[in-house]
Every structure is written in structure tokens, then in C-alpha cells.
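Example 150, ligand heme C.
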Amino acid sequence: MKSFVFAALFLAGAAVSVPALAQFQKPEDAVKYRQSAMALIGNHFGRIFGQLKADKPNVQTIQSSAALVETLGALPFEAFVPDSTLPNSKAKPEIWTEQEKFKAAAQKMQAAVAKLNTAAKGGDVAAIKAAFSDAGGTCKGCHDDFRAKQ
Ligand code: HEC
């Protein structure tokens, strides 16, 4: 019983003392996290594209990557913390001055990759192609506005 009370107090204390942004100790950590998440999304998105270009797309490969892209799509955005426009980052300052627009673009992509995953599960290649193209449009839309070219 005693140990239960201690555990409860400890958890309550931890919840209060760890602010959300402390998940990244340094701005470099946040940049690395979001770039890694984007790189994984890009890799699996590319695998789907590769299959869709093939004469006989491997639907299982598409399905496993589409499921991952949906999961991974939730990851990058918490790492766009303020003051993390470092030289090795392509994040444009507009991300922080146009937060609402940036968040909306993230949500649009998340909705589109969820639809892509649903289409992939259905297994109809034409439907997957259409959903892939919509999802790709949401990546490009955000990159055009919020990712530096160089
Ligand atoms: C809401 C905005 C937004 C959306 C949506 C978005 N990205 Fe990004 N992406 C960015 C930004 C900003 C960067 C640059 C991050 C940095 O360098 O700090 C980036 C970087 C990348 C990178 C380079 C990662 C690296 O190695 O540095 C890839 C690849 C990528 N995105 C793929 C995608 C794909 C594929 C999608 C769609 C499924 C997508 N992104 C959707 C904003 C977005």
C-alpha cells in the first residue's frame, strides 16, 4: 500500500515538473528528431511510389509502408519547437509566424495518409494511386510554403 502511495506521488510530481518542450534538451535534438521522422516518411512514401510505377505492384509492400506512413505522420510536428531554425535545418521561420497554417497543413497530410492506408488495405491499385497522389499533394503543399529549397 505504502509503495503504491509513493508511486502515485512520484508520478504526480513527474507530470508537474516535466514541461512539454523538455522532450528535447537542445534545439539540435528537435531538428534531428523531425528530420529523422520526415526521412522515414519519405523512405516509405517512396517505396509505395516505386510499387505504383511497377507493372505488377506488390500490394503487401504498399500496405506495410502505408501503415507505417500513417503512424510516422504523427511524429515530426511536436519537434518544430521555437528557436530551432538551425543552419542544418530547412525549416522556414514562417513555421513559427504562421503556426495555424502550418498546423493545418500537418493535419491535412495526416488525414490524407490515413486515407492512403485505408485504400492500401482495400487493395485496389487504382484507388491506392488516387489516394497516393492526394497525399503527395499535401507533402508538396507544406514543403512549398515551409521548407527552404537549399
Ligand atoms: C506541415 C508541413 C509538412 C508536411 C505536411 C510534410 N513535410 Fe516533409 N518537411 C517539412 C519541413 C519543414 C521539413 C524540413 C525540416 C528541417 O530540416 O528541420 C521537411 C523535411 C522533409 C524531408 C527531408 C528530411 C531530412 O532528411 O532532412 C523529407 C524526405 C520529407 N520532408 C518528406 C515528406 C513527405 C513524404 C511528406 C508527405 C507524406 C511530408 N514530408 C509532409 C514539412 C512538412
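Summary: The pocket of heme C is lined by residues 31, 34-35, 38-39, 41-42, 45, 89-91, 102, 105-106, 109, 113, 135, 138-139, 142-143, 146-147 (CB under 6 Å).
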